[in-house]
Amino acid sequence: MRSWLYIPDIRNVGKSGADALVVDLERAGDPARVRSWIETAGPAAVWARITNDEPGRRAVRAVVSPALTGVCVAAESANELAVLATVLAEAEEAVGLPVGRIAVVPRLESAAAVLQAAEIARAPGSPGSSSPRVR
Fold first, then answer.
1. Which of 37, 63, 76, 135 has its CA 20 to 30 A from that of 44?
2. How many angstroms separate the CA atoms of 60 and 50, rounded?
């Protein structure tokens, strides 16, 4: 991909020409509106930036659809990604997607996360694991 566009607020997005759009679920507003936006945002790949807490997991459950390519999430440990993988699997099944269809890209945002990078890379759903979420 040549270009990624970070979108903190879906109300101000026009045609961008970006290859991928990353919508911030924490800032974007009502998850139902965001899901509708995701489903009509093509042809760019659409990613959701989420927080790795219960509000973030609730938000991602609400936006999982065939139009969502993946999620970007801050990760401190492999256990956090395992919890997220379970949430995504349930959401994928609920909308008729095969488990593992939604990719996960962990963000290492702290020194602790960097020290855990090898475990995070092997966690279910991480690009370095052998799980079906590998892209």
1. 76
2. 7
Q: For 95-108, what is each residue's pLDDT tens digit?
A: 999 999 999 999 89
Q: Does pLDDT of 13 surpass 70?
A: no
Name residue, tokens 């020409």.
17
* Residues facing 20 on adjacent strands: 4, 45
Q: Is the confidence at residue 135, as pLDDT, over 50?
A: no
Distance in angstroms between the alpha carbons of the first and the last residue of the chain? 13
Task: Kindly report the backbone phi and psi dihedral angles of residue 35, in degrees, each rounded to the nearest multiple of 5, phi listed first.
Answer: -60, -45
- Judge contact between 75 and 81, C-beta under 8 A: yes
Query: What span, in angstroms and rounded, lies between the C-alpha atoms of 112 and 97?
Result: 34
Quote the radius of gyration of the chain (alpha carbons, Å).
Answer: 14
- The order of strands in the sheet holding 68-74 is 4-7, 20-24, 45-50, 68-74, 103-107
Count the neighbouring beta carbons within 10 Å of the beta carbon of residue 45: 19
* H or E element that contains 7: strand 4-7
Query: In the block, which residue shows the tokens 């488990």?
Result: 99
